[in-house]
Amino acid sequence: MSTPDQSAGMTISLNGGRMIHAPAGRSLFAALRSNGILVPTACGGKGACGLCKVRVRGDSSPLQPAELSSLSGGELADNVRLSCQVKPVNDICVELSTDVLAAREFKATVESVLNLTHDIKEVRLALLPPGAISFRPGQFIVLRIPPYASSRFAAFRPFSLASSPARPDRLELQIRRVRGGIGTTYVFDHLSPGASLSLTGPYGDFWLRESGRDVIFIAGGSGMAPILSIIEDMADRGISRKAVFFFGARAREDLFHLDRIASLQKRLPELRFVPALSAPAAGDGWDGERGLITEVLERNVRSVADVEAYLCGSPAMINACVGLLQRKGLCESRIFYDKFTSYRL
């Protein structure tokens, strides 16, 4: 059997319309980015972050180990690939989500960097003209981390937006420190007001569905960010769905934005906030919920007959909470989550 002549490269059809060219031997990720399609990445196309997912039709290049560890069985069956691991060997069709097709690059100035807790900072950005980002509450951006003392090269890290889309030229991030993390070390030790940054986005499909069902929000730490964005938008748009927000922390010092949430509750009478501490300090004087967030859910969630759940936090927390909600009868199609993986560092 003769092999195709790859010297001229391959043709890539995007969502059945636009055509782009992929030079032989180059990754699909590189071909997309070079044509202005800002597929998200936190690892620079090394196959480590799992963000650059696309659906590929007609490609015969073998699956790579990075894909087998990053993609679910359902995604593999649906021809989802990591674009950085695909080197087209023939003409292919690629299906991209609407958020990836619409993503743009923005320049921003840091307005403020504030301590929310001992290990979470709030970063507020002002987009430079003509910057105005149209996003759905719950989505994330990818921030470019410039080279600095601990990192010779630029890096890219995804962060969820905590702000309301009502002010599209002002963005708010909540960033939790991780020891040794390139991104968080830069934010905590080097970033200051007035600094210039660039970012791309918005990305992601974590947003409130327009179903009218009751809502369970679950988050821990900086996982509050996309939930807060959703709740702010609910208040801005007068969405009066019954909702309960379970927020897990270790001790009282790890709680933040309590006044802000209380203010939102005044605008959203159907919103109930349930903070829970897993290890309150002796001097905390805590009389609220105690225990792991799964234990709190077990005690407080009864009927899930007409409920949707939105979760944001570590993979371990999300996996445990999803399992509990499913045991209580909530179907998988009504559980939405955003896992903060190791590449959110």
Give the name of the CATH architecture of the largest domain. 3-Layer(aba) Sandwich
Shape descriptor: globular
Number of helices: 9
Q: Give the strand tally.
A: 17
Strand residue percentage: 25-35%
CATH superfamily of the largest domain: Nucleotide-binding domain of ferredoxin-NADP reductase (FNR) module
Taking all Cα atoms into account, the compactness measure Rg is 21 Å
Short description:
The protein is α/β, with parallel strands linked by helices and 345 residues long. The protein is built from nine helices and 17 strands. The chain has helices at residues 28-34, 65-70, 73-77, 98-102, 182-189, 224-237, 258-267, 293-300, 315-327; strands at residues 10-14, 19-22, 53-57, 80-82, 92-95, 104-115, 120-127, 140-145, 155-160, 170-176, 196-203, 214-220, 243-249, 271-277, 289-290, 307-313, 335-339.
Task: Write the topology of this structure.
Elements (H helix, E strand, L loop, with lengths): L9 E5 L4 E4 L5 H7 L18 E5 L7 H6 L2 H5 L2 E3 L9 E4 L2 H5 L1 E12 L4 E8 L12 E6 L9 E6 L9 E7 L5 H8 L6 E8 L10 E7 L3 H14 L5 E7 L8 H10 L3 E7 L11 E2 L2 H8 L6 E7 L1 H13 L7 E5 L6
Parallel strand pairs: 1-5, 12-13, 12-16, 13-14, 14-15, 16-17
Antiparallel strand pairs: 1-2, 3-4, 3-5, 6-7, 6-11, 7-10, 8-9, 8-11
Helix pairs in contact: 8-9
Description:
The protein is α/β, with parallel strands linked by helices. It folds into three domains: about 10-100, Beta-grasp domain (Ubiquitin-like (UB roll)), CATH 3.10.20; about 100-205, Translation factors (Elongation Factor Tu (Ef-tu), domain 3, Beta Barrel), CATH 2.40.30; about 215-340, Nucleotide-binding domain of ferredoxin-NADP reductase (FNR) module (Rossmann fold, 3-Layer(aba) Sandwich), CATH 3.40.50. Helices cover about 20% and strands about 30% of the residues. It is built from nine helices and 17 strands. The strands form three sheets. The chain has a six-stranded antiparallel sheet with strand order 9-8-11-6-7-10. Strands 15-14-13-12-16-17 form a six-stranded parallel sheet, with helices on both faces. Strands 2-1-5-3-4 form a five-stranded mixed sheet.
